[in-house]
Amino acid sequence: MMQKALDFIKKYKSFILTTHDNPDADGLGAEILLKDVLEKIGKQAVIVNPAPAPERFKFMIPKKSMFAWDESKRKQLPEKAVMIILDTSDEFNIGKISDEVLPFVEKVLIIDHHELNPLSSLDGYVDSTASSTCEMVAEIAEKFKVTIEKSSAVAAFTGIVYDTGSFAYAKTSARTFKAAILLAEAGAVPNIIYEKLYESSSTGALLLQQRVLSTLELLTDGQVAVQILRKEDLTITGATVDDAESFINIPLKSRDIKVSILIKENHQGPVRCSLRSKGSVNVSKIAQFFNGGGHARAAGFRSDVGIEETLNNVMQKINAALGKT
């Protein structure tokens, strides 16, 4: 599978790199490291994303290494370029880039570690056994025998830490640690990255956690935990919806909880539903039913209906998966 990506990289000269809407540390880190690799082997590469990086990830992004897309930036794109989409296999999950950039590139390749979206028409290097897309790109860097810049190592190490839950999630393997060692040897310092990623949130984020945790409800004989974040919670605390990223993992500390749900309402845009599982329920399949995706144990989707209807819809699927009707 990796050979497909290696052949693609060797064949073309100019690359546009992008990741999914609302980019996370894994997508951002994979882009940054791959750009470094491409430039080291004499290629041209630009990173253009459907949206700016969330504030909490700004520390991992080298200055002027990427930009958020709008039509005025078209002149910054290389001519006769190919595109590599990282950390998603869904061309409908890259925002305006899907309509305004994708149709103008010569070829497209996916590099992703999520379960393949069955509706996607794109091909590429998809490995759902990998812990993260950063892990996959680190292996590509090793194949090309390039010297990784410290800034790229920091970015990719951050992506691995983020997507593995600090090397704790089920897909963490010896392969993951090999990639981490490669990046640490290139200059990534684990304790500094952990501090910036997990110990640098605002007081507003702490107050938001208090409010969201107060909504905790246990359903399906105590096997399913539900938390709700409403727009007014953001207004009152001054936090952002990105500050709630980790809240969904809190209920999983209980041995009785099999599935955790976090439904988030933002000031703008659709309701978002995040799903986590300890393994007995494949939440990726549930998310795909609602045009989302992810992993068997971690997935999500956007919903065009309100919080209550979204919860009712997703609970029907979860109860069916748990054998409850």
From TrEMBL:
Residues 16-160 form the DDH domain. Residues 237-322 form the DHHA1 domain. GO terms for molecular function: nucleic acid binding. Pfam families: DHH, DHHA1. InterPro entries: DDH_dom, DHH_sf, DHHA1_dom, Oligoribo/pAp-PDE_c-di-AMP_PDE. This is Bifunctional oligoribonuclease/PAP phosphatase NrnA. It comes from Breznakiella homolactica.
